[in-house]
Design brief:
The chain is mainly alpha-helical. Helices cover 80% and strands 0% of the residues. It is globular, with a radius of gyration of 23 Å.
């Protein structure tokens, strides 16, 4: 009876930690305007409030997973919680954007430990028959945190100011630490295993440089992929990856057993996690821009609308964990991603100018069902396809694929949006006969410089004052909105393709689920 109660308290503990870790990836977005006002910082510095956390978080996922195997998962998990609480406190009292960025990096270390080790702890705490339900609840928390960020962030910022989004983590984190001390059991330490320091350094540097290259592309839209700022990082990341693979093949106690990638089910789960991050979670960024900058919703109102997606995870997530044990992970992952592709194509078909909520709502329902159903079987497929001694590293790898997928999706979908937006602008402005060529060129420069993300904000700026006096003003505004519509349609098509690739990969690669070996 005691063990039965204990394992559910373990799930509650790690769910609290995971919710905080994933929430801090998305919650900060809505606070950026007020942070910028308080610190009088420029936009490039401001973006590092987001990227400092994401970059360190992604780079540390693998090292903390392996460290947990070597010195104990409970110990590393609790240290991660402690890092996160300290990072949250110092972020909340930061006196400048520089210090805020540094302390966000501290949060990233803690977030990586909490996220990576939580999946391993849940897997080890539950017997195979209940593991699907437990992983379903865990996955629901992940999906809910990612999509509920704007809602929770908007409510906190509006009521208590931007510092509250960090300070609120302190009491929750302390409660999670106390629960963890009492209920989480320490894993069996591999006392004879030594730390693969070279593997640690190379894997961390590889992920760091790869994600940093994507961030550079995201921040500097005008940079081509061949720009040395980006190309040098990409080349370096490839060289580091090659060095890492060579190292892991020759050292006696590698950080990652490369044989794990001979497991097709494990590979299928990771591909599914990557396209889920790149397509669905990366796409949330641009759905948020659509609703706030073009439809006029506040951050809080946008968060409420996004609940139509995240809300399904509360009910369907745990059920998905149970269903995956009955029909198999492969078909549930494949079907869920296919539903997501239908949902995003439905939005693409319905959306038009002027934008209305009714165009998004049916697709949001399908995206919500997809998001709720897909996370539990992905986790289950990855963790049940490896031996127990490999679950720690499997968890780290799965989370890396998901997080790198999100970073990749934000960048690549942003490029598609900008290309579609600029192409449509050029085409429609050239057709306007009532405005001379020189003035059309000036207007195009203004709108190109503002970018697709500006939306209604560009028409409230000083640059647009001259446009408002023109008889063709409403036509110009319609052209800009139509250009964004063209771009978002390209984004939606790209998301659908990504989700269909994941659906096909799951069908072809993931085999029938097998039980994790429980032998010590």
């Amino acid at each position: 009876m005691e063990n039965t109660i204990r394992k559910w308290w373990v799930l509650i503990t790690v769910s609290l930690a995971v919710f905080m870790a994933m929430l801090d990836i998305t919650i900060v977005n809505v606070a950026l305007p007020k942070i910028q006002k308080d610190f009088s910082s420029d936009f490039s510095n401001l973006q590092w409030v987001l990227n400092a956390y994401t970059l360190v978080y992604a780079a540390m996922l693998l090292p903390v997973s392996k460290l947990g195997d070597i010195i104990g998962r409970k110990k590393v998990f609790l240290f991660g919680l402690g890092f996160f609480v300290i990072g949250s406190l110092t972020s909340g009292i930061s006196s400048s954007d520089l210090w805020l960025n540094i302390f966000r990096g501290f949060q990233g270390i803690g977030g990586a430990a909490m996220m990576s080790l939580s999946l391993t702890i849940v897997t080890a705490s539950f017997p195979e028959k209940q593991r699907g339900l437990a992983l379903g609840i865990w996955s629901s928390v992940v999906g809910l945190a990612i999509s509920a960020g704007p809602l929770i962030g908007g409510a906190l910022v509006d009521s208590f100011g931007w510092r509250s989004i960090f300070l609120v983590n302190i009491p929750i984190g302390i409660v999670a630490i106390l629960l963890g001390i009492f209920f989480i059991q320490e894993s069996e330490r591999k006392s004879d295993e030594k730390i693969d320091f070279l593997g640690f350094v190379l894997s961390t540097a590889f992920i760091f440089t790869m994600v940093l290259a994507l961030i550079q592309k995201e921040i500097h839209e005008n940079y081509l992929w061949t720009d040395w700022h980006i190309l040098s990082l990409l080349v370096l990341s490839i060289l580091l990856l090659v060095a890492f693979i060579i190292t892991e093949r020759i050292v006696k106690q590698p950080m990652i057993e490369l044989s794990i990638f001979r497991n097709w089910s494990f590979n299928g789960a990771n591909i599914s996690a990557f396209v889920l991050g790149a397509g669905l979670y990366g796409g949330f960024t641009y759905l948020t821009i659509l609703m706030q900058n073009y439809m006029g919703y506040t951050a809080f109102e946008t968060g409420v609308k996004m609940l139509l997606i995240s809300g399904f995870t509360i009910i369907l997530g745990p059920l998905a964990g149970i269903i995956s044990g009955k029909i198999g992970n492969r078909w549930l992952i494949s079907g869920a991603l296919f539903i997501g592709a239908i949902g995003i194509m439905l939005i693409r078909h319905m959306i038009k100018v002027p934008f209305e909520w009714s165009y998004l709502m049916p697709g949001f329902v399908l995206l919500g069902i997809s998001n709720a159903l897909v996370n539990p079987p992905i986790a289950n497929a990855a963790m049940s396809s490896v031996d127990k001694k490999q679950v720690g590293m499997a968890s780290g790898i799965l989370n890396v694929f998901r997080q790198v997928g999100i970073s990749f999706g934000v960048v690549m979908l942003g490029i598609k949006l900008t290309e579609g937006y600029n192409s449509s602008l050029n085409k429609h402005f050239m057709k306007m006969q009532s405005i001379n060529t020189e003035f059309k060129s000036q207007m195009l420069n203004v709108f190109h410089h503002a970018g697709a993300f500006a939306g209604s904000l560009i028409f409230d700026s000083k640059q647009a004052e001259v446009f408002k006096q023109m008889p063709a003003f409403e036509n110009i505004k319609h052209i800009v909105y139509s250009a964004f519509n063209a771009g978002i349609k390209d984004v939606n098509l790209s998301i659908a393709i990504l989700l269909l690739i994941g659906s096909l990969a799951a069908t072809l690669l993931i085999k029938e689920k097998r039980t994790i070996k429980d032998n010590k």
